[in-house]
Amino acid sequence: MTGYPEGYTSPRPAWTTGRGLYNALARRADVAAKYFAVFLLDAGGLAALWLLVTYAYAWYVLDITAYILVPWWVFALGVVEGAILWESLGRSWGQKALGRELTPVSAEATPIRRLLYFVLWNLFSLTGIGFVFVPPLHERWSGLGLRRERPSSQAPVPWYRTSAGLFVAVLLVVTLVSALGVTLTWESLRRLFTQAGQTVEFWRALVRPDTTILLDAMRDMIVTVFMAVLATLFAVAVSVPLSFLAARNLMRGPVGRPIYTIIRGAMSVARSIEPIVWAIIFLVWVTALRSPFAGILALWVHSIADLVKLYAERLEAIDQGPIEAITATGAGRLSVLRYAIVPQIVNPYISFTLYRWDINIRMATVVGLVGGGGIGQRLINYIWGVQYRQAGTVMILIVILVWAIDYLSARLRAKLA
Amino acid sequence: MPTPYLVIDGLTKVYERGQVHALRGLSFSVEKGEFLVVIGLSGSGKSTLLRCINRLIEPTEGKIWLDGTDVARLSAKRMRRVRRRIGMIFQQFNLVDRATTVRNVLTGRLGYMPGWRSLLGLFSSQDKQTALANLERVGLRDKAYARVDELSGGQRQRVGIARALMQKPEILLADEPVSALDPATSHSIMQYLEQMNRQDGVTVIASLHFLSLARRYGTRIIALKDGQLVFDGPPKTIDNAKFKEIYGEDAEEVEVR
Ligand SMILES: Nc1ncnc2c1ncn2[C@@H]1O[C@H](COP(=O)(O)OP(=O)(O)OP(=O)(O)O)[C@@H](O)[C@H]1O
Ligand SMILES: [Mg+2]
Q1: Which residues, listed in sequence order, are joined to residue B13 by a DSSP beta bridge?
Q2: Whether residue A320 sits in one domain with residue A240
Q3: Is A44 within a domain?
Q4: Which of A33, A154, A303, B148 is 20 to 30 Å from A351 at the Cα level?
């Protein structure tokens, strides 16, 4: 075009820029992740099958507790090679589960090619070297690669005629068989049906509540509700900002993605530790015997982990349209947040918070059982003290409380939807 | 010789994901006051082109001269200043459903407000009056305080137009503004765009799916195919042969009346 200064910049290879390098690495990681996801599913599945089969065999036949039954390196080799062989020659369950199949990329899928694929996987991909290249070496040289499965015009093979289907079926049966053998005995089953009488005293106590403790119990119940309220409120204050850092669609690029990964990872670890365990940790930490404070801390940590996940998933599902439109008006990043994102998330956020508060009420009772204060603590004290009438009274109160809060929160949430 | 208002020079866009070449070295220019219609098959790169002009999408290569500045090389901050002169409306309207109509329209002013004012939602009373006036102009004054999700598709697109009007744009990008609407409503929306073009002198670049609409409203048509320019000229020069070239051998023209 004429009339404009020619701002000439020499074209550089893409990977010499920071962004280009990141993209190149991300692509390789992406390809490797796709292959390894399938491989890990297959190898993991085969390992599980072997462990279960040997376990059941040892339990029922040899009458001992043992697994593997072969040297560990035989086991490892068998699992890894078995998985790769399965993937190369047939349709493995990992491929099936992730919706991929081994497709001819640049050559016909002859048995020889498949064997070549098997060998190349062992040589290059297992060591990771092959994934320095895109497409990876084993794919390049064998002409076969994992691709998203395509809808075919042929009728699907019934599951019992596929190796993946049979594998899953066998795995289920073996799991069931070994689980039954380990956890159930005839003796315990017999007791379940003959010894119901043992609990009579307890049931009798339930229908004769002790009204003298009502006032004290109510006081503890209020403590429990307060514990839940405080834990939820403090958790919201932390979770709302964190959720933005934990939303995949907002955290892109070389800085954002690691932050996202770290926060999501930490949250899922924190969530997988039950509140009751957190309560014990905090009881030790703040060294108190009967302490609602430790209970609050426990609920707080677990609520944060839970809420960040719920919030972030909601953020990931927002409509990109308004963001585009508000950006197009020339608004700054914060304004986009305020006008395009926040209106979409306020109601869901409130709804999740109510839901979590509802859970926290129940959790606060459980946390009390280990000494986290509130009504749960009172209950466990009565039970240890064999004061069944009082324990029964407390249980009735708890049922009423939980039911009421459940109803309230459900009603409020229905309003918000 | 005066230079054209908008000059696209060697514009290329490659989407990282899947290595899709959406635009391949596209070059053309637009004069001030033109009503340019972009046509082409689905996937030919129309949306990508429009979004590159206001950099909702980062172009991979090429230059975009808007009124003498290369938009493709501006910093994020400068880009925001340029964006507020570029209005945009969308196929899916892209309104904030939970907010009222007038509030949606007011967001058109965000580019002109200091950050703290927009965060606190302190729109000036003049902006509010303009917003109501613009709603009046698109015939939605009585819906000013209704929530957007109570409006019909045609009404929503009119809200979109009012929002763009708030920017007092020099140029309007319309990405398939009527694809989600019925024929009669389509014409009414297109007439608002035509009015902006004729009365306010706004340069309009609109992508459309129906050739009949393109012929009726465009002062010039360009056609894309696989990210390349395959036609550039006045509407009446598109004959049957050209049409087949753009849309493929099997295509039949469909009229929208
Ligand atoms: N975010 C994206 N990532 C990867 N590829 C994309 C992305 N957006 C668009 N594409 C691809 O770029 C090409 C051009 O897309 P574009 O949306 O610009 O076409 P279009 O002409 O607007 O089509 P339509 O008429 O369907 O809206 C298509 O092949 C599309 O698949
Ligand atoms: Mg499009």
Answers
A1: B23
A2: yes
A3: yes
A4: B148
Domain that holds residue A290: 201-416
Q: What's the Cα-to-Cα distance from B219 to each of A120, A217, B37, B194, B233, rounded to whole Å?
A: 60, 81, 8, 10, 9
| Per-residue pLDDT reduced to its tens digit, B122-165 | 999 999 999 999 999 999 999 999 999 899 999 999 999 999 99
Q: Where are the beta strands (DSSP E) in B149-207?
A: 171-175, 203-207
Q: For the segment B187-227, what is each residue's pLDDT rounded down to a tens digit?
A: 999 999 999 999 999 999 999 988 889 999 999 999 999 99
Mean pLDDT of A322-347: 93
Q: Are residues A293 and A224 in the same domain?
A: yes
Chain A residue nearest residue B84, CA to CA: A330
Q: How far apart, in Å, are the Cα atoms of B7 and each of A51, A167, A352, B72, B119?
A: 68, 62, 50, 11, 35
Nearest-by-Cβ selection for B111 from A23, A322, A331: A331
pLDDT at A2: 38
Upstream peptide bond of A135 is cis (omega within 30 degrees of 0): yes
Atom 1 (ligand 1) nearest CA: B15
A393 and A300 in one domain?
A: yes
Q: Is residue B33 in contact with ligand 1, taking CB distance under 6 Å? A: no
A339 vs B29, B56, B107: nearest CB = B107
How far is residue B111's CA from residue A285's CA, in Å, rounded to a whole number?
51
Tokens of B74: 């501006």
d(CA B85, CA B169): 5
Residue in this structure with the two tokens 């340069």, named with its chain if needed = B203
Indicate if the pLDDT at residue B240 is higher than 80.
no
Residues A247 and A98 grouped into a single domain: no
Tokens of A123: 């040589």
Which tens digits make up the pLDDT trace of A270-303? 999 988 899 888 888 887 666 788 889 999 999 9
Q: How confident is the model at residue A105 (pLDDT cuts 50, 70, 90)?
A: confident
Count of the separate structural domains present in chain A: 2
